[in-house]
Amino acid sequence: MNVRSAMLAMLALAIGGVLAEPVSASAQEGPDDSAAPRITLAMLPPGTEIGQIADTVPGIAPGVMSAGLGRVPASQTYLDITQGNRLFTSLYPDVLPPLYVTGSRVPMDLWERVLERADGAPADIEPGQLASALEDADVTIAARPLAGSPALIAADRDGEIMRTDSCVPGDCAGVTILSVELGDLPELASRLRPGSGDLLIAIERPPPERDLLSIGILGDGFTGHGLTSDSTRMNGYVLATDLLPTLLDRYGIAIPDDVSGQPIEPTEGTADAAAVADRESRLGQISDRRWETLAVNLLIWIAVGLVAVLIRRDLLGPLLAVLATAMALVPLLLLIGALIEPSGLVERLLVGIGAPLGAWLLLLAARGPMGMGPSPDRARYGAFAIAGLLSIGATAVDMVAGSPLTTLSLLGPNPGLGVRFFGIGNELEATIGALLLLATGAGVTAFGRGDPRRTMAVAVVAVTLVAVLAFAPGRFGADVGAAITFPAGAAAAVVVALRLGMRKAALVIAAPVVALAALVLFDLAIPGDSHLTRSVLSAGGLDQLGDVFDRRITLAARSFPRYLHSPFFIAALIAIAAAIWFRREIIGWFDGRPAALAGVAGAATATVVGTLANDSAALLLMIGTGFVAAFCGLAWGTRPKAGGRGNG
Q1: What's the maximum distance between 2 C-alpha atoms anywhere in the chain?
Q2: Using CA atoms, how far apart are residues 625 and 633, in angstroms rounded to an integer?
Q3: Strand (E) positions, 220-334?
Q4: Quick one: which of 215, 198, 212, 169 has its CA closest to 52?
Q5: How far apart are CA 456 and CA 441, in angstroms?
Q6: Distance between CA 541 and CA 536 in Å, rounded?
Q7: Are the beta carbons of 639 and 367 closer than 8 angstroms?
Q8: Fewer C-beta within 10 Å: the chain N or C terminus?
Q9: How many CA atoms lie within 13 Å of 436's alpha carbon, on the beta-carbon side?
Q10: φ/ψ of residue 471, rounded to 5
Q11: Helix (H, G, I), strand (E, B) or coil at 217
Q12: Which pLDDT belongs to residue 67?
């Protein structure tokens, strides 16, 4: 080659370099590794249903995705995906600003506010962690130019977003985010390469207010199956925070310690999109039905009782016994409702009529054939004890079986709002915590033999041990509060039953500490991935452990203002004040029945400890106070009279 030819060649290269599209954040595709998985996040229009996704893409693993804790804006859902962690919005120091993407980034001022908001939250929250983790491993994550707001998923720690339009959707290296119509899914599905690890993840775009979003995953391992994760332990149900660990795991990238989500996994056997949709419908009904089925029915019972008492005053004692026993039966009836999944009206009638009717039948049964059982007074305690045993026993069995019914119960953990998908929630914890001690005291009072004080102490220890084993371990109930409140209430009941005095009242503190230590050992020996394991044992140091307690205390404090206008909350406060003021008179209602009195002391203690230890403090206070007040009403109706007999 002569000098002239060499110069022409150099000139051609220079011109080509100028005319070629520069390598930038909007065009860079990362290493072209044809063997690496290609993952497409296809965001579908709001309102897309699970069945539509399954019908459009045969073999896709159908499910629903919890968009956030409670109802959150769409931008919060996208941020939760990028950080693999989420909080209640009330725990953030500021309201999330309206976010949008301009060009290849989130506007700097808005992103700085996002980072400051995350830094002020009581948790390790790192917006943009997904993109940064992928980029650090030389895996591309990019959003198509017309991706819209879902492009936020591709934002890295600096708020920058890689854009790409130089590849055919489905053939792009790394992770690609794009917005599509339902009819575009078959074309994307056809580009999956068998055996390469490619995935098509179709997700319904979150509207401003949404609980559960439709999702489907197609690709190696998922095709022809269902989906789940250890976050939910429910077939067809995952969290938005599960996407980050799923993507990182697909590329063999270590999942950061501060990520709370778990990788999405295929289920065994084929998936039933209709069954997932039906369950989603049931979960969506829980919040709406709670008030009518529980609160309204309780008000109706009280109103009917008042009318009956105005007609015949001597009915007050028996009606108070029916009310208390009916309340004890409610958890059992709600499990039946979860099993049959009736309409709203039928479920209201199941509880509204079934509970008092069942209570009346139990009152008759407690007397025994021909009235040969306990006295009428003790039979009322016996009916309450049987009702409590049925409700607690049925719930415990369901816990050990994986909580398939409790999850769908109106007193369950309410997974529709993304709070918890298995085990017991705060409502049921408060119910069982009080009912456990009250039913034990009632049972010893009605059917106990020998010294009722010693019998009560032994019975309380036995039933509490069984209850903690059933409800507290992450393998079953995944509820740390049960390991604290149940033993604390039991310790108080033992102290009162045996008259141990103030010096030995240290049992109240020691019992939950010992139980919690035992739970820690159990969870470490038999991994259950419980709330305790993830939030406490894996906190990652004193600072993060402090964040855990900070979150719980903050949520507990903020729960009270939310209920200031609730008539039940006001009634609970009045009942507590009256109980303190008239404590001597109330104790007198239990003369000759030390086991029942010990049960009340234990239930009250469990309620107070649960209120202090849980993030839904006001709710636990209302529920626990309601059960204790109803039981005290039963005691008033059977209180010793001047002649020595109770009110039969």
Answers
A1: 129
A2: 12
A3: 227-228, 237-239, 265-266
A4: 215
A5: 7
A6: 9
A7: no
A8: N
A9: 37
A10: -105, -25
A11: strand
A12: 86
Calpha distance 494→492 (Å, rounded): 5
| Measured distance CA(126)–CA(255) in Å, rounded | 13
SS3 state of residue 552: helix
Q: Is 648 exposed, middle or buried (0-12, 13-18, 19+ CB in 10 A)?
A: middle
Sort residue 553 into left (φ over 0), alpha (ψ -120 to 50) or beta. alpha
Alpha-carbon gap, residue 337 to 343, rounded angstroms: 9
Across the chain, what does the average pLDDT equal? 82
End-to-end CA distance of the chain: 118
**Residue that wins the pLDDT comparison between 202 and 413:** 202
* Nearest in space to 532 (alpha carbons), one of 474, 603, 593, 596: 474
Which amino acid is present at 318? P
* Cβ contact 366:383 at 8 Å: yes
Domain residue extents for the chain = 38-271, 277-637
- The values of phi and psi at residue 80, to 5°, are -60, -35
In this structure, which amino acid lies at residue 475?
R
Lowest mean pLDDT, pick from 170-174, 251-255, 509-513, 611-615: 509-513
Strand, coil or helix: what is 64? strand
**Per-residue confidence (pLDDT) for residue 484, from 0 to 100:** 79
Contact 217, 199 (CB under 8 A): yes
Residues 65 and 121: their CA atoms lie apart, in Å, by 24
Q: Could you identify the residue written with the tokens 């039981």?
A: 631
| Range scoring the smallest mean pLDDT among 250-259, 279-288, 434-443 | 279-288
Helix H segments across 180-262?
A: 185-190, 243-250
Q: Which residues of 129-159 are buried (b: 16+ CB within 10 A; e: fewer)?
A: bbbbbbbeeebbbbbbeebbbbbbbbbbbeb
Check pLDDT > 60 for residue 643: no
Residue 419: its pLDDT value, please? 61
Spatial separation of the C-alpha atoms in residues 223 and 62, rounded to whole Å: 10
**Distance between CA atoms of residues 451 and 334, nearest Å:** 36
User: What own/partner pairs with CB < 8 Å and gap ≥ 24 does 376-379 have?
Assistant: 376/638, 376/646, 376/648, 377/638, 377/645, 377/646, 377/647, 377/648, 378/445, 378/446, 378/638, 379/446
Which residue, 496, 507, 510, 488, is CA-closest to 457?
Answer: 496
183: which 2 tokens?
A: 């009819």
Over 80: is that where the pLDDT of 543 sits?
A: no
Pick the CATH number of 38-271 from 3.40.50, 1.10.575, 3.40.720, 3.30.420: 3.40.720
Residues 6 or more apart whose Cβ sits within 8 Å of residue 182: 44, 45, 48, 52, 53, 56
How far is it, in rounded angstroms, from Cα 157 to Cα 131? 8
Residue 417's pLDDT is what? Answer: 57
Nearest to 266 by CA among 281, 246, 244: 246
Count of all residues that appear for the chain in the document: 648
pLDDT tens digits for range 370-381: 444 567 788 899
